[in-house]
Each structure stands twice: as C-alpha cells, then as structure tokens.
Amino acid sequence: MDNLIIIRGGGDLATGVAQKFKRSGFNILILESETPTAIRRSVSLCEAVYDGTKEVEDMICRKIDRNGELSKCWEEGIIPLLVDPDGSCIGKLKPAAVIDAIIAKKNTGTEINMANIVIALGPGFTAGKDVHAVIETKRGNDLGKLILCGQAEANTGVPGEIAGESIRRVVRAPGNGLVKNIKQIGDIVQQGEILLSVNKEEIFAPISGLLRGLIRDGINVKEGMKIADIDPRPDINPNTISDKARCVGGAALEAYLYLNANGEAKK
Length: 267
Prior knowledge:
Helices cover about 15% and strands about 25% of the residues. The protein is an alpha/beta fold. Strand 4 (about 60-65), helix 3 (about 70-75) and strand 5 form a beta-alpha-beta unit. The relative contact order is 0.17. The mean pLDDT is about 95.
C-alpha cells in the first residue's frame, strides 16, 4: 500500500484533496461516517454513502463494504469509500499517508502514528504532535499554507467573506429536528424565500444568490448546525470543485511531497 492515501472525510474540501492525489497517480480510499452531513453535496464524494456512487468532475466514488473490493475499484479508476468513522482499517492497510479532512474544527481521533505521513486540514491539530503537517483552511492570504510546527488559525465561527457577504451567506439550524427541503442546490433564490424547514419551522434565505449548499433532505439536525450556503455570485457553478477546495487540495499534495522528500515524517 505504498501508493495508498487514506482521506478521513468526504466533504467538499476532502473531495478537492482526493482529486489532486488521484490525478498525481495515487490510489485513494475515503473513510466516512454512517450519516455524512456535507451541505455542498453536489461536489462531495461522501454522497456515495447514501447513493452508492457519486461523480464529481472527473472522479467517480463508490461505496464498498469490505477491504477486498479496493483493488477492483482502483483497477477501474474508481475511488472507493468505506464507512469507517473510527479509522479501524488504517492499521491493517498501512497507507503511505493519512489525511484528516473531516473539518470538525477539532481532532476526532487522528494520531501522528497512523502512517509515516499524517496531514490535517484546519484548526484542532498541532503539527509536530498530532500530525506531521497542518493545512490552513481560513480564507485569506494564508489559505493553503503548510504549517509544520503549531496550529492553523482558530475557528472564529465567522465564514470567510465572498462578494461582500460573510455571516449572512451561511444558514444554520434554529433548533433540533427533521429537514424538509423546499429548494435545491443550484437554484437562484431571493432574500426572504423559503429554503427548507427544520421540524416544520420554515427557514428563509438571508440574502439573494445561488443556493450552493443544502443539507440532505430527511436528515435530523441539531441547533446551530450548518444547513445551507448561499453564494451571492449567481454565475458560480455549484457542480464544480471550489477555488478553496482546489487550493487546500494542492496544499495537501505539497505537504505530502515535502515531508516525503525531506524525511521529516516519522518512520
């Protein structure tokens, strides 16, 4: 498995990472939870958990049930996905690298001894202690920066600004309950339009724009959870990987190559 990269998480940033490594000739395995809650579902390979397969740009991801199906997927040029939130398969497969792309804003169980090279995206990890390298995920001048000692910027709870909008472009659940979608990803919405309901409480668009992210219909959510994302730029294509995901994905590939070339990872 010297050519295997295991990515923990299959959301939109993880999908950007998967594309960079797959195009560079690596075999990829995505590990996911039983009920992923990505909102940019049109560009998140984790949707294969629900639908069996998911296609994003030039990649096809397929949910598998056991390690024995890995080789068949790779021979077909397909990225396999395994429901394994604890990463129990990592020790058996001995990958070249493990990349934590869960974006939980905290460490949910990734350890530096999981592989020769362990990389994490965003806050919640200390490079040199939890992982070998951390990738900055906060929008701005340092987006995609390699951190080899220390941590990424702490989570502020404030989304990065796009076309003058920040907090208002992200919609969060007002309480616990079942989601019922009214709109769909890709819809152009006007401020005040109904997007979805949570526990039968209607949720309205805080701004006008393109509905770029929307949590899966029928999911039970908790109060404060991110459930939708409106991009104020109406001409954005919601079915292509974002600029941020491409940047972070390229940075993860750079981190792997740097650590491998310089022998800075644990052996």
